[in-house]
């Protein structure tokens, strides 16, 4: 066949199937092939199709020589490393970034200084080595804030949500963001009651209708110190991991029916060797935890109580499921003279909630302004 | 593939009663003529021709047709290779063995040139042979994965329609993606 007859013989939908079978590094390189390949690769449908078939891996953050390292691991018995991401292409003013969360292959990081002030908010897709600095909301008063991150299907965009504690409001204290799934973000919050006793609950924010809600914890956990608790996702519902004071066991609670308090059940009590923090429920039923001290990764089977230590994965403080994606490929990261991101199509909305007030603030009408 | 029982479209050329459930031998006895874009006529067994969804629906639309089926988008050279693949596939239909099938598929693509693969893709696509398309797509992906832009352009016969400035910008945007690429 002559060269000219060969041209464009591969139909576009087949080209898409070939591209999907390639690693992202090759896909980015092949943007240069021609204009039609470039537009196919940057097309939203292709980016979504790639995301839909991407295999979930485990993203771990570990520490080495005061540097934070992010790596991807297979969700297999030995947690084989599949990829070591390059060092962060941006610097933290504090000692390190807080990982707010990740979705669709995008990690949301916040840089919070020693006074609790947020210095920067960053969306980072480590697979394509691209990051965006989000503008901070105009209203950044002297109150502590905690951030949440998720993807909103209805607006087809990422959302960063801020929960603020107002000094004048009810005595409610938001703690770290816990987990997002099915378009709902979850934080742990405790409320100081008149008798000075603490009452903890899960604050939820539904990205599809911008509504906050309160989800009650099991009676037994509502009064414990939430510092010892982690909320995670299990089978599309909430799970609570609570480290008992004896430092020898972790209780795992599961909300069988999402949002229904009576459906909380204690699933397991896991015997642990010293203080251990849960990170993620694995697809094989095990729980990935880190051991205090060495911060060594431990995978624990709650049914058999058998646990496996990963001596090669030390100094780990974060693990979650992660997919490699082309998300953010089309986002412009031009910064104008005021240091804010220029208006762009896919801007990231910011929502804030002051505890004690029910309405949602959208400072400045979104991040792009 | 649906059996002839569901689709008793045996033509008058066949002496067997058309209502009888066709056996493997009865199927293989029937031949179908297919004419390629370069006017070559291939006589293939019905069971092989029914692997081509496009041909199958031709017979569904015109059950008593005895004509040669024209395949205007299919040149003879890749078509003969497609037939070769489908003949192998049919063996695994009667006797499924995933490991053997994978082995056979990888041997099939291994001995094909880049040009063979690229020419077979539109044929497999036109004839709607999903198994073959999957095999070809994966084989192509494996061959181009670590290759340079120039290599892949010539692989598919793609004309570069970027200006050198446009291309340089794209290369700069993903400079790391151009590192550690196989020599052409």
TrEMBL record, chain A:
Leader sequence segment: none
Region (Disordered): 336-369
Entry-linked CDD domains: F-box_AtFBW1-like (cd22157)
Gene3D superfamilies documented for this protein: 1.20.1280.50
Cited InterPro entries: F-box-assoc_dom_typ1, F-box-assoc_interact_dom, F-box-like_dom_sf, F-box_dom, SCF_F-box_component
Domain F-box: 4-50
Polar residues bias locations: 345-354
SMART domains attached to this UniProt entry: FBOX
Official protein name in the record: ASSOCIATED INTERACTION DOMAINS-CONTAINING PROTEIN putative ISOFORM 1-RELATED
Source organism: Salix viminalis
From TrEMBL, chain B:
Database matches in InterPro entries: SKP1 (IPR016897), SKP1-like (IPR001232), SKP1-like_dim_sf (IPR036296), SKP1/BTB/POZ_sf (IPR011333), Skp1_comp_dimer (IPR016072), Skp1_comp_POZ (IPR016073)
SMART domains hit by this protein: Skp1 (SM00512)
Region (Disordered): 1-21
Domain SKP1 component dimerisation: residue ranges: 130-177
Domain SKP1 component POZ: 30-88
Keywords tagged on the record: Ubl conjugation pathway
Coiled coil location: none
GO terms of biological process kind: jasmonic acid mediated signaling pathway; protein ubiquitination; ubiquitin-dependent protein catabolic process
Description of how the protein assembles with itself and partners: Part of a SCF (SKP1-cullin-F-box) protein ligase complex.
Primary role: Involved in ubiquitination and subsequent proteasomal degradation of target proteins. Together with CUL1, RBX1 and a F-box protein, it forms a SCF E3 ubiquitin ligase complex. The functional specificity of this complex depends on the type of F-box protein. In the SCF complex, it serves as an adapter that links the F-box protein to CUL1.
Family to which the UniProt record says this protein belongs: Belongs to the SKP1 family.
The protein's name in its UniProt record: SKP1-like protein
Organism listed in the record: Salix udensis
């Amino acid at each position: 066949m002559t060269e000219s007859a060969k041209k464009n013989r591969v139909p576009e939908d087949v080209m898409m199937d070939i591209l999907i079978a390639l690693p992202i590094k090759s896909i980015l390189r092949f943007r240069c092939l021609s204009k039609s390949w470039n537009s196919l690769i940057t097309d939203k449908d292709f980016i979504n199709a790639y995301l839909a078939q991407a295999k979930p891996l485990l993203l771990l953050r570990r520490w080495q020589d005061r540097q934070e390292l992010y790596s991807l691991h297979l969700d297999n018995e030995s947690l084989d490393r599949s990829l070591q991401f390059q060092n962060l292409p941006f610097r933290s003013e504090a000692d390190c970034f807080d990982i707010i969360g990740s979705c669709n292959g995008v990690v949301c990081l916040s840089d919070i200084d020693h006074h609790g002030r947020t210095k920067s908010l960053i969306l980072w897709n480590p697979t394509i080595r691209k990051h965006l600095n989000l503008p901070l909301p105009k209203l950044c008063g002297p109150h502590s804030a905690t951030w949440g991150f998720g993807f909103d299907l209805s607006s087809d965009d990422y959302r960063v949500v801020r929960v603020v504690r107002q000094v004048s409001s009810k005595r409610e204290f938001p703690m770290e963001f816990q987990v997002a799934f099915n378009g709902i973000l979850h934080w742990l919050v405790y409320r100081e009651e008149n008798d000075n006793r603490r009452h903890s609950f899960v604050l939820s924010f539904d990205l599809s209708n911008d509504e906050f809600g309160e989800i009650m914890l099991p009676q037994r956990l509502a009064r414990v110190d939430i510092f010892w608790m982690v909320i995670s996702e299990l089978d599309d519902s909430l799970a609570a991991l609570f480290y008992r004071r004896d430092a020898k066991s972790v209780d795992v609670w599961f909300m069988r029916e999402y949002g229904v308090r009576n459906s909380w059940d204690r699933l397991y009590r896991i015997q642990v060797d010293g203080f251990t923090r849960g990170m993620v429920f694995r697809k094989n039923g095990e729980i990935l935890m880190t051991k205090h001290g060495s911060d060594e990764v431990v995978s624990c089977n709650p049914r058999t109580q058998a646990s496996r230590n990963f001596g090669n994965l030390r100094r780990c403080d974060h693990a979650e499921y992660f997919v490699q994606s082309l998300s953010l490929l089309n986002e412009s990261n031009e910064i104008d003279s005021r240091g804010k991101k220029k208006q762009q199509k896919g801007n990231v909305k910011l929502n804030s909630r002051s505890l004690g007030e029910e309405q949602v603030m959208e400072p400045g009408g979104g991040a792009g302004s | 593939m649906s059996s002839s029982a569901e689709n008793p479209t045996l033509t008058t050329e066949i002496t067997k009663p058309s209502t009888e459930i066709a056996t493997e031998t009865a199927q293989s006895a029937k031949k179908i003529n297919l004419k390629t874009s370069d006017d070559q006529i291939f006589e293939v067994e019905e069971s092989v021709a029914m692997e081509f969804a496009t041909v199958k629906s031709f017979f569904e639309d015109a059950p008593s047709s005895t004509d040669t089926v024209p395949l205007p988008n299919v040149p003879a050279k890749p078509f003969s290779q497609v037939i070769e693949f489908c003949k192998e596939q049919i063996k695994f239909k009667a006797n499924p063995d995933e490991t053997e099938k994978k082995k056979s598929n990888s041997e099939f693509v291994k001995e094909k040139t880049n040009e063979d693969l690229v020419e077979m893709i539109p044929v497999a696509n036109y004839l709607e042979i999903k198994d073959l398309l999957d095999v070809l797509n994966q084989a192509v992906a494996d061959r181009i994965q670590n290759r340079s832009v120039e290599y892949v352009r010539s692989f598919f016969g793609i004309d570069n329609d970027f200006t050198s400035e446009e291309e340089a910008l794209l290369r700069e945007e993903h400079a790391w993606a151009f590192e550690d690429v196989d020599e052409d």
